[in-house]
Design goal:
single chain, 297 residues, alpha+beta, Aminopeptidase, two-stranded antiparallel ribbon, 11 helices, globular
């Protein structure tokens, strides 16, 4: 019988792991939650492809164990005011300071479109504000590997796109790739998930959305390599058919895999509990399957 206690973001915690975490906390009784997370990452050699510790993911895992009563984390320590967070909140509630007049024309009349990766740049707050104000899912700060893009035309923002780490064990995609559960766990970081795609509501330019998807496919792997030390071989997204028709993905030659089950990853009832989504993917290399099933250990 498996002694698996918890599986979190591709990491399986078993009884022996839980004992190790408890011993680690006992040896460092004065360590903060942040310090314990770093120590555990070091002990497990739990790092990103670029060598950085998976500190935030590890902290979330330890918090899950704490909430289940399996470990007792130290109390949160007094935190000084975070000027970065407070400034971001002010920026997200302040004036946009951008041109918002209607932009309606053919794609050929639009002129050059510039796409900029804005994570960790002065433009990142603008990205957050646009998503917060104009995307139906609002803005949420991604966890794990992610990139953010703004597209500009005629001197003003016209669109915003967000890409994040993908979730493991998605039926249609795993069958399409040819993944076993272990291969998925090992190689999931070679996928990027289009979590947000926003063409600003005052921008009415036919074919702009599919053009942006095509441009993203040309550059995102190199951008991911630069920031995270590895390439991307497959893009994916989920489209709510009750809201959208997926036209731009179809026009950009993405592949439709089918509808999701409508059940969350923690479902225990076997019945749909949310709207079913269309699942679309786009390979970034002809031999993408070889890269995604290769043993990178």
């Amino acid at each position: 019988m498996s002694d698996e206690i918890l599986r979190y973001r591709g990491r399986t915690v078993k009884a022996a792991d839980l004992d190790f975490i408890r011993q680690l906390m006992a040896v460092h009784p004065d360590a903060s939650r942040r310090r314990l997370s770093a120590l555990l990452c070091q002990a497990w050699n739990w790092v990103q492809p670029n060598g950085q510790l998976r500190d935030m993911v590890c902290r979330s895992l330890m918090l899950q164990l704490h909430r289940r009563g399996l470990i007792e984390l130290p109390a949160k320590r007094f935190a000084p005011r975070n000027n970065v967070i407070e400034r971001r909140q002010r920026e997200l509630t302040g004036a946009l300071g951008i041109e918002m007049s209607p932009l309606e024309r053919s794609f050929s009349e639009l002129g050059p479109v510039a796409i900029r990766q804005v994570r960790r740049t002065p433009e990142e707050p603008l990205f957050g504000r646009l998503m917060q104000d104009y995307h139906y899912l609002r803005y949420t700060q991604p966890v794990g590997e992610h990139l953010k893009y703004l597209a500009y035309a005629q001197g003003q923002p016209v669109a915003a796109l967000a890409w994040s780490s993908s979730s493991p064990q998605v039926r249609h995609r795993d069958r399409f790739v040819g993944w076993t559960r272990e291969a998925c766990r090992q190689n999931i970081h070679f996928l990027a998930y289009n979590t947000r795609f926003l063409v600003l509501p005052w921008v009415k330019v036919p074919h702009l959305a599919s053009h942006l998807l095509g441009r993203m496919a040309q550059r995102i792997s190199a951008d991911w390599q630069q920031l995270y030390g590895h390439r991307i071989y497959l893009l994916e997204t989920f489209v709510d058919p009750e809201r959208f028709r997926g036209t731009c993905y179809r026009a950009a030659n993405w592949t439709y895999l089918g509808l999701t089950t409508g059940r969350g990853k923690n479902d225990r009832t076997g019945r749909p509990n949310r709207s079913r989504k269309e699942h679309w993917v786009y390979p970034l290399a002809q031999d993408f399957r070889r890269h995604l099933v290769l043993d990178h250990g």
